[in-house]
Structure formats: C-alpha cells, structure tokens
C-alpha cells in the first residue's frame, strides 16, 4: 500500500472515531499515536493535511548523502 494513502487513511480514521464520540486519549491508544499528533490532525482540514503531507515528502533528508553507504 502507498505510504501516502496509508497516512490519509489514518487521518480519516481519527476523524471517524472522533465523530463517534471517542476521546483523544482512546483514539491515540487505539491507533498507537501520540495524543498531541491526534489533536494536531483533528485541528487540520483535509486540504491542510494534504499540504502537510506534501511538505513532509519534499523535506530534505539529513542523512541522504550517506544513504549509499
């Protein structure tokens, strides 16, 4: 499965569980995510989350020069 798709599925799962009335603590323990991450994703719209993922993918990796080693 595509990593991008898996992250989007996690985002939608967080929002679905929150709509069902589950607490942030319960969502974070069920999905094995940090509580602050769950809160951050709940505060993002779908467009904001998509731009966040694109920004993360375009980020320069520090260890990239040593990848072949």
The computed structural class is mainly alpha
CATH class of the domain at 1-48: Mainly Alpha
Stated plainly, the CATH topology of the domain at 1-48 is called: Arc Repressor Mutant, subunit A
Average of the residue pLDDT scores:
91
User: Total number of β-strand segments?
Assistant: 0
Number of helices: 4
**Helix and strand element order:** HHHH
Largest sheet: none
> What is the 3D shape?
elongated
Strand content: under 5%
Radius of gyration: 15 Å
- Helix content range: 55-70%
Which stretches are poorly predicted, pLDDT < 50 over at least 5 residues? none
* Alpha-carbon distance between the two ends: 27 Å
In the CATH hierarchy, what is the architecture of the domain at 1-48 at level 2? Orthogonal Bundle
What does the model show?
This protein is mainly α. It has a domain at 1-48: Arc Repressor Mutant, subunit A (Orthogonal Bundle). The protein is 65% helix and 0% strand. It has four helices and no strands. It starts with a helix and ends in a 12-residue tail after the last helix. It comes from Dyadobacter koreensis.
């Amino acid at each position: 499965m595509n990593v991008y798709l898996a992250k989007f599925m996690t985002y939608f799962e967080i929002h679905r569980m929150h709509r069902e009335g589950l607490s942030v603590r319960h969502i974070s323990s069920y999905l094995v995510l940090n509580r602050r991450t769950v809160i951050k994703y709940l505060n993002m719209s779908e467009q904001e989350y998509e731009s966040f993922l694109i920004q993360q993918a375009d980020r320069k990796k520090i260890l990239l020069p040593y990848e072949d080693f």
